[in-house]
Amino acid sequence: MKKNNRREFIRMAALSGAGLGLSRRLPAWAGEPPGTADQLVPPVAADGLDALTPVMPVESARPAAFFMPNVAGKFAPGGPAFVPRRAASWWTTLEDILWPEKKVVDRIKRRAENFANANIDTAINFGFHVRFDFANYFGQLHGYYANVCEELHKQDIKFMEHYSCNHVERPRGEEGLRQLQKTQRHHVLLFHDPAAAQYAQYEGHYFNDCCEIDIRDGGRGYADYYALEVFCHNNPGFLDMHKKYLQRLMREVPFDGIEIDDMCDYAGFTACGCKYCRERLRKDYGHEIPPFGDVSFWGDTSLSDRSRWGNYENPAFRDWLRMKSDSVADHLKMIKSTIGGIPLMTCCSNAGPIVLNSIALNLEKLAPYLDFFMLENVGINVETVNWMIMDAEALYQKDVAEKRGNAPAITISYMVCEKGGYLGWCLGRFWGVANWSSTLYGRLEEDPADALEVEDIMRPYNHWELHHSDLNNARGKDLVEVRLVTSSYCRENGWRGADVLEQWDRVKAWSALLLKNNIGYRLLRSDELSDSKALGDEPTPLILDGVACVSDSQFRALQSFLSKGGTVWMAGPFGTHDEKGFKRKASLSDELRKSRYKNLVMVGTATAGDPLKSLVSEGRFWPVLRQLSGNPLWAVRIRFYKEGPAIHFLNRGLVAVPHPTIKENAGLPVLKDFYAEAGDNNLEYAFDAHRLAIDRLSVKSPELGENSRLVTMRNGRDGQSILQVNLEGVETYAVVQQNAIPGQTI
Ligand SMILES: [Zn+2]
To answer: Lower Cβ count inside 10 Å, N or C end of the chain?
Structure first.
């Protein structure tokens, strides 16, 4: 587990009283006209392959990628208002609220010009985050943001508002106050003192009356980690206050998009016990909240890790969690209905594991109301170089975005030192999503003496990209050779196997194997698993590892897929429970086995071995790309763009250089630099030319500057072609792409 970053917060927040810290972290972006997938250059279908192998590793042509649904679920033509590609945080400090002081106004203008010079196309607000803390100053704050919009728009840069809607800072005692200053300076820390807080309000709604009720003691819901009091998503006063605030914000600030954070419940399992939540649980699910201490519902509450509380064997507890995430989704729906066509995003630092239930974070329930999707991928400490563990989540986010009409996906990378900014940029390229660069000095007790502005860090990389490899990821399609199933049902029902591992652990284990073997994959989520047509649209194998909670419709769809010759690699258990978490009388895997589908391949779990190895060695699976020689630590991802395929290389063997003195609050050193393990960077791969049509390629990298190298190809045996890529002098990232034809951009 990474320490001292946002995902660590997710674990801690619910969860223990220990207060540590959060690491968080676009010229004209007029949306491009709606495109069609048939404009891509797909690989050629293979022929003559064994039925057990993927025969056509390309996603089926699907029409019109750029349609954005409105809140009613209908698709409005015209696409997103804009598509961020090179975003950066617009940091604010307490002084900015003194707008229109001249130096504040001058600073806005100067930074907007600097952003333009760094080819940043979207500025995303950061600073006045816990928004209702500033209720007494909204006039000046909105004046400031309107001024920011004015200056950015002159530079053809979009501005996204960004705040947390459902909290107020309420540090408890001097110790809490001091702790906040050590770790949370990235939020402007101005808030009501305890006496004033009694009367703090907006539009007649007292904040104290909007707060959640902690079931343990009847006190206000509290998130220890941030020192926040938490508003209740079911409280009509809070919802009215938030709606009126949004309407005012829209009148006073011409923002282009908005990120409204914390669509979850940081107070954890034991909130909220207010009358509205009790009524909702009764009405929607027919349950009463039992008193705290009822072990049959609350589980073992002696555990210090509060995310482990709760008895998932009790259906009422599972419904309690459903009600909580339903409530968050309804709040987001209200937000979307208020802002209309303005692009809406929320923070999401994670999407897969069970621990998210403890804070009611369920991205799939939120997705229908979102227009942009954001993944917080890395922290600022030395563990950042271990980027591989984030691959599954990144692809999860990408799939959610794609199923929302190919909505823009964005990854945020936090940095303290320059190289952290470069790694974030590389990850955006590798994953094929927009990059949001963000310094995060506020996570440290004080700014480093040599702190750089984000635009200064990112300028060279953005310049290089525009001049050498301006790939439009929003129009790109990953090469998909297998589909890896992730089950939200398993997560929602808290299912764990006899090995105590959850289904997401198995997804991550497969992700690591696929990444290591350079096999293109995508995640396939629960909704799609019940869609027999969607399953059959792609001929690639499905991987199901520990998919224990299966609905009847999913089972029927899977049977249909198998009966038509589809390939499934399955590691049990499978179908031991239904989608609500109730145990089935008989496991569905028994029924599958009886049917003797010829392409149902039972394999071992990836958490305890390497099932991929035997699938390949036994000739059941034939990857498009196989490395023949050279450093094996280069991860390869193939993506098809309008003008042709590109192959992204990102090093899995990066070694962190810790900052000698600066540490995050959890004690891990900040990432100062990194280097790559030595290896032979003359790389040779065999690839199936029937399935991957590539030609006229060259290697480019910011690490090669203006230079590029030709890639050589020759015919190999058995219909294979050989690709030789020279990455000498490149440590972190390179792209192999088609040489530009004069007059053509790639
Ligand atoms: Zn409530």
So the answer is: N
Distance 357 CA to ligand 1 centre (A): 17
The yes-or-no verdict on residue 496 having pLDDT over 90 is yes
8 A C-beta contact, residue 39 and residue 476? no
What is the CA(715)–ligand 1 centre distance, in A? 66
Average pLDDT value for the chain: 88
Architecture of domain 480-617: 3-Layer(aba) Sandwich (3.40)
pLDDT of residue 22: 26
Dihedral angle computed from the Cα positions of residues 237, 93, 339 and 114, in that order, rounded to the nearest 10 degrees = 180
The domain limits of the chain are 480-617, 625-738
Could you report the per-residue pLDDT of 26-85, keeping only the tens digit for each? 222 222 222 222 222 222 222 222 222 222 222 322 222 222 222 233 333 456 789 999
Q: What is the pTM of this model?
A: 0.90
Distance CA 396, CA 399 (A): 5
Q: Ligand 1 centre from 311 Cα, in Å?
A: 21
Ligand 1 centre to CA of 162 (Å) is 24
Which class is 625-738 in CATH?
Answer: mainly beta
Buried b / exposed e over 315-349, threshold 16 CB at 10 Å, is ebbbbbbbbbbbbbbbbbebbbebbeebbbbbbbb
What is the 182 CA–ligand 1 centroid distance (Å)?
31
Q: Residue 533 and residue 531: Cα distance in Å, rounded? A: 5
pLDDT: which is higher, 349 or 480: 480
Residue 539 burial (C-beta neighbours within 10 Å; 0-12, 13-18, 19+): middle
Q: How far, in Å, is the centroid of ligand 1 from the Cα of 231? A: 8
User: Each residue of 85-126: pLDDT tens digit?
Assistant: 999 999 999 999 999 999 999 999 999 999 999 999 999 999
Tokens 């001024």 belong to residue: 147
Amino acid making up residue 438: S
CA of 211 relative to ligand 1 center, distance in Å: 7
Q: Tell me the backbone φ, ψ of residue 710, rounded to 5 degrees.
A: -75, 145
